[in-house]
């Protein structure tokens, strides 16, 4: 292919998938955008006439940039205050939310976080983005057999993170609304009835804003936590229903201008996980 307009068109066509790939690597949409921009600069400087498959070429650039970024990201997370959650992907359309449930659910993103960088890369490039073993091997500097082994190990780890019983938009919105109403009313009993016995709450404040610095386990403890916030009037001033990484929940605004997202992972009609993101660095796109 030739450069110029044709090269720009090829990059523009590939850009959404490149951004999606980088987000799954890094758990940050802002970092993903930075990586995609860096990939554009490398693409613009490349000998595009010698590139037979621009998509594969660009995936290779993005994957290598992400692997470099993961090294520094992991060092930062070693000193991260409290639970780490990915930057939320917020949708208001239930259909888009259902699609996200399969692709970037909180459980899946956390499962990817537990993989080694090479396992993560092999799984994403091979299983999620349909790269051939030869292509992935060239990207990672490994043999095709090693790539298949890395992808298989990763696949086993993330299998349990896939939603087994995806909630319908109607049920998800109903349960999220009921959870919010019970919390605002300080009704611990009603919250307890909505929560699975082994439910877990993870809240990401990044040490910047007040937040639970350890996961809260068990329906009773989570119910008391939210009921207490409700009785103290600390649940925000405005709540907009949304789908957050494919999960039903709310975007909440507070009187001081801060924002948070709360997403509920629901199984068999009960909330089995609550994910709250309060770190302002991860919510810049919602603060306008």
What CATH calls the topology of the domain at 169-286 is Nuclear Transport Factor 2, Chain: A
Portion in beta strands: 15-25%
Q: What is the tally of helical segments?
A: 11
In the CATH scheme, the class of the domain at 169-286 would be: Alpha Beta
Q: Helix and strand string, N-terminal first?
A: HHHEHHHHHHHEEHEEEE
- Largest sheet descriptor: 7 strands, mixed
Secondary structure elements and pairings:
Layout: H1 5-26, H2 29-45, H3 54-78, E1 90-91, H4 94-103, H5 106-113, H6 117-128, H7 133-140, H8 144-158, H9 169-184, H10 188-194, E2 195-204, E3 216-217, H11 219-231, E4 238-244, E5 247-253, E6 259-267, E7 270-277
Parallel strand pairs: 2-7
Antiparallel strand pairs: 1-4, 2-3, 4-5, 5-6, 6-7
Helix pairs in contact: 1-2, 1-3, 2-3, 3-6, 3-7, 6-7, 6-8, 7-8, 9-10, 10-11
